[in-house]
């Protein structure tokens, strides 16, 4: 006669389920905390211009137009001053990355928006930029975060499955975009 409770097989099945389900549940809990946040703040340091910005860009269930304009300005093409709208989904992805990294440090900007002229120039100089770079559409950013390793930044961005993540340890940055999900 079997006693009530968990047998070995049931216990092992439960363990396998927990191992598979926990990351998804933890990620969903994190995403839920992000979605339910009363406000969303981002901090940036533009390494090329020295400009700093800390801005609440989403509050009361909507984006703050003045803050978005300030973010667009700090993420401008530093080579020619051209400003383009940065897609809010990219900002949300960065905010979620910062939450996951548990940091208030600014994202140090290597490259935000890149004008078509700058992109073509960098491409012709052999810098390995894509011909149709998502930087030109306000969909990508190259960053690093003080106090956090590039490997951790990369791993965190990949786990969000929000878009592409490129890893450039020699150049000390991680590329994050909100295009299709892929890594390199």
Instruction: Tell me which CATH architecture applies here.
Output: 2-Layer Sandwich
Estimated radius of gyration: 20 Å
- Helix and strand element order: HEEEHHEHEHEEE
Task: Give the beta-strand count.
Answer: 8
What does the largest sheet look like? Answer: 8 strands, mixed
CATH class: Alpha Beta
Q: Please report which band the strand proportion falls in: under 5%, 5-15%, 15-25%, 25-35%, 35-45% or over 45%.
A: 15-25%
**Helical residue percent?**
25-40%
Unreliable residue stretches: 18-30
Query: Looking across the biggest beta sheet, what order are the strands in?
Result: 3-2-1-4-5-7-6-8
Span between N and C termini?
57 Å
Query: Per the principal axes of the C-alpha atoms, what is the gross shape?
Result: globular
Which structural class best describes the helix and strand composition? alpha+beta
Task: Describe the structure in brief.
This protein is α+β, with helices and mostly antiparallel strands and 184 residues long. The protein contains five helices and eight strands. The protein has a single domain, classed as Muramoyl-pentapeptide Carboxypeptidase, domain 2.
Write the layout of secondary structure elements.
Blueprint: H1 8-35, E1 39-46, E2 52-59, E3 62-63, H2 65-74, H3 88-101, E4 107-111, H4 116-124, E5 140-144, H5 150-160, E6 164-168, E7 173-177, E8 182-183
Parallel strand pairs: 1-4, 6-8
Antiparallel strand pairs: 1-2, 2-3, 4-5, 5-7, 6-7
């Amino acid at each position: 006669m079997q006693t009530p409770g968990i047998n070995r097989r049931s216990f092992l099945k439960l363990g396998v389920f927990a191992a598979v389900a926990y990351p998804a549940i933890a990620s969903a809990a994190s995403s839920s905390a992000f979605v339910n946040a009363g406000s969303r703040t981002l901090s940036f340091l533009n390494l090329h211009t020295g400009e700093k910005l800390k801005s609440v860009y989403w509050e009361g269930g909507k984006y703050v137009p003045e803050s978005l304009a300030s973010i667009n300005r700090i993420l401008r093409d530093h080579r020619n001053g051209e400003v383009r709208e940065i897609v809010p989904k990219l900002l949300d992805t960065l905010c979620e990355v910062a939450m996951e990294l548990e940091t208030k440090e600014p994202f140090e900007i290597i490259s935000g928006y890149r004008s078509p002229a700058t992109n073509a120039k960098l491409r012709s100089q052999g810098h390995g930029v894509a011909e149709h770079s998502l930087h030109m559409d306000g969909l990508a950013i190259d960053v690093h975060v003080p106090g956090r390793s590039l490997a951790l930044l990369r791993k965190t961005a990949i786990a969000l499955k929000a878009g592409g993540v490129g890893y450039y340890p020699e150049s000390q940055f991680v590329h994050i975009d909100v295009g299709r999900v892929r890594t390199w």
